[in-house]
Amino acid sequence: MSIDSLKDRIPDYAKDLRLNLGSLANDVTLNPQQLAGTFVASAIASRNDEVTRAVVAHFGSALSEQALAAAKSAAAIMGMNNIYYRFVHMAGGDYAKMPAQLRMSVIGNPGIEKTDFELWCLAVSAINGCDLCVTSHEKIVREELGSAAVQTAARIAATVHAVAVTLQEVDALKGA
């Protein structure tokens, strides 16, 4: 399973996704680790087993064992944080002033360069739709890597998620 196998499964009505996936897989805005980790974290956050397997198979060799673990950690921790901080934002009140009381030590010590981890957290937060988390991680990534890196992470997240949704729909309608 690879990016090419995903592209082959994307129907013609979604050929823009096929083209975007191919061009983003070869993007040079990010270094190889940043690119690979953004794809992996985005695939995990998109919750599609086929997409996750293909992305990890394609990009796994560009990541050290620590970087792969960090990409997985970014998807995991933001899966929790995005829900919690989205709740805080929506509910208003005193919740923003209260300590979260959730363990999230991986953010302070991800085992790789902090900027790369922030980039991956940004991509996952975009997929999960958490305004507070997107704003927080975007600021750090923009200051460290620039606006082009932020945009590339968002483009990868958007495309990987759209591919996951499309392939889920294709599989759901196979028996219809």
Can you characterise this structure?
With 176 residues, this protein is an all-alpha fold. It contains eight helices and no strands. Helix 3 (32-45) packs antiparallel against helix 4 (49-59), helix 3 (32-45) crosses helix 5 (65-91) and helix 5 (65-91) crosses helix 6. It catalyses: N(6)-[(R)-dihydrolipoyl]-L-lysyl-[lipoyl-carrier protein] + a hydroperoxide = N(6)-[(R)-lipoyl]-L-lysyl-[lipoyl-carrier protein] + an alcohol + H2O. This is Alkyl hydroperoxide reductase AhpD.
What is this entry, summarized?
It is an enzyme of class 1 (oxidoreductase). The protein is mainly α.
Characteristic key phrases:
176 residues, AhpD-like
Largest sheet: none
Give unreliable regions as ranges.
none
Q: CATH superfamily, called what? A: AhpD-like
Residue share in helix = over 70%
The helix tally amounts to 8
Q: What structural category arises from helix and sheet content?
A: mainly alpha
Count of all domains: 1
User: Gyration radius, to the nearest Å?
Assistant: 16 Å
**H/E element sequence:** HHHHHHHH
In total, the number of strands is 0
CATH architecture: Up-down Bundle
